[in-house]
Amino acid sequence: MTRTLDVSRDLYTTAQRYIAGGVSSDARRTAGVPLYVDRASGARLWDVDGNTYLDYVLGQGPALLGHCPPAVVEAVSAQVARGIVYSAQHAAEARVAERLCAMVPSAERVRFNTVGSEAAHAAWRLARGFTGRPKILKFEGHYHGWLDPVLYSVHPSLDDAGPQDHPRPVPGTAGQPPAADLVICPWNDLDALARIMDEHAGQIAAVVTEPVLCNTGAIEPDPGYLQAVRELCDRHGSLLIFDEIITGFRLAPGGAQEYLGVSPDLSVFGKAMAGGMQVSALAGRAAVMDAISSGRVAHAGTFNSQPVGIAAAEATLRILDEQREEVYGTLYARGRQLMTGLREAAAKAGVPMLVDGPGPVFQTYFTDAPAVRDYRDFARTDRAMMGRLHAALLDRGVNMVPRGLWFLSTAHTEADVAATVDVFEDALRSLPLG
Ligand SMILES: Cc1ncc(COP(=O)(O)O)c(C=O)c1O
Question: How many Cβ atoms are within 10 Å of 88's Cβ, its own excluded?
């Protein structure tokens, strides 16, 4: 069941001459020929060789309503004809800000950016500027974008990572300045957090977390964990920042903070908020955001609230807000159907596999462990085998995130999911399992 990839291979050969590494983001590096997409619609992609894929990558999450949802296409097309970039205020940005503040429990003020990394950067700066404290506490295994201050201890080698209950910062790339004022902590471990916060008492501006960890598996916080993190932050006078770039608008209209019932001081959104266009947002309590309002903390960007992206966000958020029962009912139902189907397929194929996560996003792991709770557990799963499964699925027309993450959209039908389960079992059986 091997795809024909002649056109893709030729494009890749040419690309390697002109694009560093042949791809435009390190996340798109693959062992073989990368996916060359010709077009995308609903839950499907078509590549330049004419192969069709059921897509569970969805642009790394943004296409929550499927690719090219008609309302977004219409809004974007109409806006393109009225102006692509203003770098000035316009009515739609205020409407989107108002709706976002109504949907997200902790959002009283918002500032728009273009991509997630930028909004995350803005949140860290605001936390330091607001509190006057130097340090940020980040959890091992969490990803907050690819910029210098944050790209530490995402998937570090365990040889470098230090003790499990007191990890050290490990840079993610050559060329990165030293981890100034960064404190690394294991996730889902309250004792470690309490101890490490005590060690840095009076110095931590903010604790930053993916509220459901989606860059290292799809790991939900232990019951009560984030509530306790909230209390520790309050006790220490530190802000709590939720990085909702993946969870925002995906787990609930109000993101993971609604799903989990915990209110951060600041949160960042991107991906699913604009139906595939590049819009991100920093949102939070008015008292904190006032440091930006007053101009004390700088925040800027030529493309902030670019009208085409904002038109897409307006169309997307309107659907997520006004059709919330249908949208989230579908996302959770399809997610559960797929998770159950993949578990059964793995059992039939005799492969030890854990399938876990909220549903609208979840993870498959090659492991016989009953649970994965943090980065160190994740690092013990068979990630090389996951890479082989990714290739086997792609060959059979199913596109998942190579590390084993699956994103659902409202465009995935029950029949799509059932077809995916069949393909999954076939792909598992094709693997050289010990
Ligand atoms: C949790 C999280 N934060 C931040 C980012 C960075 O977003 P972007 O790639 O849009 O810069 C990502 C990207 O995957 C993410 O998953």
Answer: 9
